[in-house]
């Protein structure tokens, strides 16, 4: 239980005096409907000792950290995504989850927590249906350190409903508007979440057909006649996957565990043109089998909480590559065994005036083995790495807003240090230091320094060599498109990398836009001995001439794109992010019957989308009877208690907590429970009267209503009326985002069931690359990749953007995804006949239209219940990036149909929840 004295982050006002344990405002599913802490303090009459005490628990699994969330999404928001799984939900909020600190290091999946606890792997929960989610929180990179991760990944905390069951089946059929190939997918998911644990089974089968150059009308000048029909733009693929997940909580010991297993088989077939004699079609066939198991164990150890995770993966891949002369095929095999073990201990061992010091200690023991062979070589590559790592993170609160040294705002410091001992690279070190400053409740700043040594992965060191023949490549030296061989694989001579980064962040909760946050990140990345996968350009050939093979006439034959080591890279990037959610329009007035029919006082119109209504005394009395008529020492029947309240009576493992239930009984059935309820009802009636009757209100309340001149401030009275007379948290227990017709929290306490306003969400991110340079040696040369001297990958744009937005209204939904890539240049060198390339900017938009038929036709049973129909249109405007050479012509290697052979993409998705 949490005791908050004098100042509360409280919940629904009706419950403060009616006797139900309550939770902090941050725990509510719809925070916009809750009163402010100061107003609650003013609204509650003082107890006998003039001390206000609010007892409650946070929403199970919600994080309690200094850093404010970058974005939050509740059940109704998630319903507006039109998602089919948690994986789809994460895709919908991708602009919010991408780290602004990574700069030139590229993207990466964020850190995931389930109910505030580390998980063994992404596969443990990715197939869960979105209806199982109560809330999703996205936290900045600094939060990752508290869970044993480095501070350059954002944290996504997914809070699940404590009681949920569903069976979902989904069928998708998709293909490009211009034809050429189709894709289909079938998925079946079962999930059960109960008081003691959860169980999930998922089966997914996906198939996509082949697309060739001939089907897009593409040719290459020096290719054999008819060869386009035997060169693929997209391979023929098939995959089948089965996943099982199990989690269990043990109330007696506080122990919780989860186990998961996945089996995946995938096949791929692609075409590489014709053999050297122009007769035999060349194929490349791949089969990959993967078996993954993992588990998580969490339990308290004294004053600490311990989490152990294991992730074990075996992958066996076989690639058959037809010989260029058509005489047979070569085989490349790759087998990987991986065991990852991590132990994380979190505690708060020291109390300071501004709060508790948070300490996280993590240890890991990993083992990876890679074995690869190739029929073109006489030996097998075997690499083994044992990794033992450890680290400590300390978060120290210096000042607290409204508390110790509160004049300077909330300030905390973060320090971390760690080591990695690798069997093949020795001992590597890392450390970070950061400061977080929150001058106001809505504005925060942070600065973080990260330094670490990183070894290249075993795949970069030991992957087998694979040659891909007849790949159309633009030769900058001649300005022509030719067919060349691309070589990929591993490089055993890679060095360890040293990274030194700065990250600065500002996070502002916008005062003029409810539930909207604006984030700015500025990252500076410096690295030495960088492992990089090269592209092909004039700059690359100048820097690494031994990686490019030409004949005596200078014609391009092959490019070696295996990883290499760059002496130094430098990048700077600034990232802007906006995340918002809410409802469109003014909240509707409650009906006369809704306001007075239950005997309550008139309710003021909700502000900023708040629903109207107070609590229903009759229904509250029914809840009180649930506790007061159960004999002392026996467990009351909680089945009739609304889920929002029932969840607050559970412990961290999801089981009924005897102490919380005893406290609830004391609040409901104590001697002064009825008196408190009457006092609150009288005060609320006076404030909610029209006009308000302020005479006789406690002085503590009147003091909060006075302005600086000591007179009653009409605006403060208006605000208190909106808070007290409109408090509601409608929507509890929803599983599809709709406002259900009965039994919900809002109806029980007089909520406004007529609120049918459209709901929206918006997540936008824009990145500006300020610097991206590569230094080949200590004295140079220096390659400016933004200016076109590119060594890694393709052309690098200065501006990139990512958009996810959606609108949901009465069962109909629209989701819009957008991507923007700015202009870029690739320099072609100074040799005669060479040519630069100029890449135009590109903006694409994907649209998903969906309809929940059961909600639209108001069918609570039958085949329409839980049925959703969705239409997918990717690249709505069929946008294609234009690439021109110095003559203003489009090279064959950069023909729009080759860069993007799909174009406008159409699909239909049918999903049924049982």
UniProtKB/TrEMBL annotation:
It is a multi-pass membrane protein. Keywords: Cell outer membrane, Membrane, Signal, Transmembrane, Transmembrane beta strand, Transport. Its main location: membrane. It is found in: Cell outer membrane. GO terms for cellular component: cell outer membrane. InterPro entries: Beta-barrel_TonB_sf (IPR036942), Plug_dom_sf (IPR037066), TonB-dep_rcpt-like (IPR039426), TonB_box_CS (IPR010916). Residues 584-618, 726-747 are annotated as: Disordered. One of its GO terms (biological process) is siderophore transmembrane transport. One of its GO terms (molecular function) is siderophore uptake transmembrane transporter activity. Residues 587-598 have a biased composition (Basic and acidic residues). This is Outer membrane receptor proteins, mostly Fe transport.
């Amino acid at each position: 239980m949490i005791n908050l004295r004098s100042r509360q982050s409280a919940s629904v006002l009706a419950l403060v005096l009616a006797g139900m344990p309550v939770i902090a405002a941050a725990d509510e599913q719809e925070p916009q409907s809750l009163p402010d802490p100061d107003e609650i303090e003013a609204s509650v009459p003082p107890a006998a000792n003039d001390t206000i005490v609010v007892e409650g628990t946070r929403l199970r699994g919600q994080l309690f950290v200094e850093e404010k969330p970058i974005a939050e999404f509740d059940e109704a928001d998630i319903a507006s995504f039109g998602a089919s799984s948690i994986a789809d939900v994460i895709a919908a909020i991708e602009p919010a989850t991408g780290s602004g600190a990574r700069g030139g290091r590229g993207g990466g999946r964020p850190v995931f927590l389930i109910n505030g606890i580390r998980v063994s792997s992404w596969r443990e929960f990715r197939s869960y249906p979105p209806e199982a989610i109560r809330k999703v929180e996205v936290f900045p990179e600094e939060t990752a350190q508290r869970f044993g991760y480095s501070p350059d990944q954002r944290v996504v905390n997914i809070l699940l409903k404590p009681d949920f069951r569903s069976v979902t089946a989904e069928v998708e059929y998709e293909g490009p508007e211009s034809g050429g190939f189709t894709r289909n997918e079938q998925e079946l998911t079962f999930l059960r979440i109960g008081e003691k644990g959860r169980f999930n089974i998922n089966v997914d089968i996906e198939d996509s057909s082949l697309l060739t150059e001939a089907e897009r009308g593409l040719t290459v000048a020096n290719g054999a006649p008819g060869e386009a029909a035997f060169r693929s733009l997209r391979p023929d693929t098939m995959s089948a996957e089965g996943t099982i997940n199990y989690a269990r909580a043990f109330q007696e010991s506080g122990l919780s565990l989860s186990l998961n297993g996945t089996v995946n088989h995938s096949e791929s077939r692609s075409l590489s043109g014709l053999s050297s004699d122009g007769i035999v079609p060349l194929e490349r066939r791949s089969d990959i089998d993967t078996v993954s198991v993992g588990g998580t164990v969490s339990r308290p150890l004294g004053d600490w909480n311990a989490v152990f995770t294991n992730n074990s993966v075996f992958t066996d891949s076989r690639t058959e590559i037809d010989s260029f002369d058509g005489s047979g095929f070569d085989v490349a095999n790759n087998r990987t065994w991986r065991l990852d073990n991590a132990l994380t201990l979190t505690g708060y061992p020291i109390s300071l005036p501004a709060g508790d010091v948070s300490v996280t200690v993590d240890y890991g023991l990993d083992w990876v083995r890679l074995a690869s062979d190739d029929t073109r070589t006489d030996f097998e590559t075997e690499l083994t790495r044992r990794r033992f790592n450890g680290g400590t993170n300390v978060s120290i609160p210096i000042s607290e807003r409204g508390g110790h040294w509160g004049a300077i705002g909330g300030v905390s410091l973060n320090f971390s240090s760690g080591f990695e001992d690798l069997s093949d690279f020795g001992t590597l070190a890392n450390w970070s230091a950061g400061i977080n400053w929150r001058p106001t409740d809505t504005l925060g700043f942070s600065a973080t320094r990260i330094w670490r040594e990183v070894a290249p992965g075993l795949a970069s060191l030991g992957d087998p060599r694979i040659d891909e023949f007849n790949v159309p490549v633009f030769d900058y030296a001649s300005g022509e498109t030719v067919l060349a061989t691309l070589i990929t694989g591993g490089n055993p001579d890679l060095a360890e990398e040293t990274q030194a980064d700065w990250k600065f962040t500002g996070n502002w909760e916008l005062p003029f836009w409810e539930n909207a946050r604006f984030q700015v990140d500025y990252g500076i990345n410096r690295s030495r001995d960088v492992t990089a996968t090269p592209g092909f350009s004039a700059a690359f050939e100048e820097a690494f001439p031994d990686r490019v093979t030409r004949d005596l006439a200078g014609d391009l034959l092959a490019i070696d794109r295996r990883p290499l080591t760059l002496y130094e890279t430098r990048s700077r990037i600034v990232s802007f992010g906006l995340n918002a959610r809410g409802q469109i329009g003014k909240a509707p007035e409650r009906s006369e019957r809704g306001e007075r029919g239950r005997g309550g006082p008139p309710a003021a119109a909700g502000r900023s989308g708040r629903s109207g209504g107070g609590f229903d005394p009759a229904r509250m009395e029914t809840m009180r009877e649930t506790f007061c008529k159960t004999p002392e020492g026996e467990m009351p029947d909680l089945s009739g208690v609304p889920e929002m309240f029932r969840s607050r009576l559970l412990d961290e493992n999801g089981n009924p907590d005897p102490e919380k239930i005893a406290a609830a009984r004391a609040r409901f059935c104590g001697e002064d429970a009825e008196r408190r309820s009457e006092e609150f009802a009288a005060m609320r009636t006076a404030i909610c009267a029209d006009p308000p009757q302020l005479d006789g209100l406690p002085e503590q309340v009147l003091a909060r209503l006075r302005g600086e001149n000591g007179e009653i401030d009409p605006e403060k009275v208006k605000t208190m009326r909106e808070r007290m007379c409109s408090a509601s948290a409608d929507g509890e227990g929803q599983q599809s985002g709709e406002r259900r017709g009965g039994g919900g929290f809002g109806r029980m306490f007089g909520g406004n069931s007529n609120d049918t306003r459209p709901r929206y969400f918006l997540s936008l991110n824009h990145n500006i690359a300020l610097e991206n340079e590569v230094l080949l040696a200590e004295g140079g040369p220096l390659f400016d990749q933004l200016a076109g001297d590119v060594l890694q990958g393709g052309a690098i744009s200065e501006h990139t953007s990512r958009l996810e937005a959606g609108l949901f209204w009465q069962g109909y939904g629209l989701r819009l995804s957008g991507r923007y890539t700015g202009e870029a240049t690739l320099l072609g060198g100074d040799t005669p006949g060479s040519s630069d390339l100029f890449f135009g900017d590109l903006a694409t938009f994907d649209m998903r239209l969906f309809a929940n038929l059961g909600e639209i036709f108001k069918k609570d049973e039958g085949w329409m219940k839980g049925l959703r129909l969705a239409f997918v249109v990717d690249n709505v405007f069929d946008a294609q990036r234009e690439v021109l050479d110095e003559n203003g012509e489009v090279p064959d290697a950069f023909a729009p149909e080759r860069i993007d052979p799909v174009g406008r993409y159409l699909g239909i998705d049918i999903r049924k929840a049982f």
